[in-house]
Structure formats: structure tokens, C-alpha cells
Amino acid sequence: MTNLILNVNREGYATNQIRSTMTVGELIAMLENYDGDTPVYFGNDRRGDYWYTYGGITEEDFFEEDGEEDDEECDEESEDED
């Protein structure tokens, strides 16, 4: 069986620091290319053709947050660091 591994990258400490990300619609369209029984994992710390660690995805891993509050908090922290 094929496993789908998402190579995750750490890009910032807040969502406003991320250069680009997929929308839900884009993610759904991408996942439609896979069989519904394909396991999905996060791959961390990729080196060449393999990852050092992996993580699973469960329903409990999904969170919603108001992006504006997150962005304002990060902006304040960034100003404090200067």
C-alpha cells in the first residue's frame, strides 16, 4: 500500500509569517488524486529520500483560530524584539 507523506516545514512563529499555504479547496482537490484508504502522515526533518520522524493526523489535530488575533500578537512580539 502507498503512504502519503506530507513534508512539513517550519517557516514562522505566526500565520502571518508563512509565505504561502494551500486552501481547503486546493487540499481537497489534491487529495482526490489518492485512494480513500491511503494513510496520511507528516514527515519531519527530511534528509534526502527519508525523514527522521513521522507524525499521524487525527480528527483531534484540527483547530480553528481567528487569524487576525494571531497576526496582531505576533506583530507586537516582533516590535518588542527590535
Task: Set down the secondary structure blueprint.
Layout lengths: L3 E4 L16 H8 L8 E8 L2 E7 L10 H15 L1
Parallel strand pairs: 1-2
Antiparallel strand pairs: 2-3
Textual characterization of the structure:
The structure is a single chain. By secondary structure, the protein is α+β, with helices and mostly antiparallel strands. It has one domain (4-81). It is 28% helix and 23% strand. It is built from 2 helices and 3 strands; from the N terminus they run E-H-E-E-H. A 3-stranded mixed beta sheet has the order 1-2-3, with no helix packed on it. Strand 1, helix 1 (24-31) and strand 2 (40-47) form a beta-alpha-beta unit. It is globular, with a radius of gyration of 16 Å. It starts with a strand and ends with a helix. The model has no long low-confidence stretch (mean pLDDT 83).
Strand order of the largest sheet: 1-2-3
Strand content: 15-25%
Shape: globular
Count of runs of 4 or more consecutive helical residues: 2
Low-confidence stretches: none
**How much helical structure, as a percent, in the residues?**
25-40%
The count of DSSP E runs of length 2 or more, i.e. the number of strands, is: 3
